[in-house]
Specification:
The protein is mostly helical. It has eight helices and no strands. The longest helix has 44 residues.
């Protein structure tokens, strides 16, 4: 645990119902790629159920695994807080309410997309979600800039992405290097 995490010692883990409600509220009120920023705000800052270091570890794992990042993150947080049953409850909280909303809103939007104003509104929502994603990226990058080796790996990964290097190749090269660097860093602490 870092000094920053000591100051942010988490509150007691929530009950299963509180965990479900927290993820259900997030799933019903969030859009696009900015969801991880909302989860960070809710679980680290507001409810203080996990530390920032724990959140970043879970976010990193959820992005490295196949599947939808937010569902992976919900499973990880649920498991971290309440074990296997917590993982299931968190997953249901993040999936079920939004699935119901998608069915109803999707039908309405399908009818309204013929109006240009609706397209503009959806573009605005997409811009806001992009801003939230960038914000989350900056939070994670702040932690990544802890040493020169991490900065080099992060910079090389960004440059490779901008040069359209296939994502699997970037992952196959950057992941083992990052894991090795983290292992060496932990051994020296």
């Amino acid at each position: 645990m870092t000094d920053n995490d000591e100051a942010e010692r988490p509150n007691a883990p929530p009950g299963l119902l509180a965990l479900f409600i927290a993820f259900a509220q997030i799933s019903m009120t969030s859009f696009g790629g900015g969801v991880s920023a909302i989860v960070h705000s809710e679980f680290v800052r507001t409810r203080r159920w996990i530390t920032e270091t724990e959140f970043i570890a879970g976010l990193s794992l959820s992005q490295a695994l196949p599947g939808v990042n937010i569902t992976n993150l919900a499973i990880w947080i649920g498991y971290r807080l309440r074990g296997p049953l917590g993982a299931i409850v968190a997953l249901l909280g993040v999936v079920v309410p939004s699935a119901i909303i998608i069915v109803f809103v999707g039908a309405i939007i399908a009818e309204l997309t013929r109006y240009p104003l609706v397209g503009l509104a959806l573009a605005g929502v997409a811009a806001a979600a992009t801003g939230l994603s960038l914000n989350m990226g900056l939070i994670v990058a702040r932690r990544a800039f802890s040493d020169i080796a991490s900065v080099v790996v992060l910079t090389a990964t960004i440059v490779a992405g901008l040069c359209h290097v296939p994502i699997l190749l970037i992952f196959a090269i950057a992941a083992p290097i990052s894991i090795g660097l983290a292992f060496l860093k932990l051994r020296h602490e």
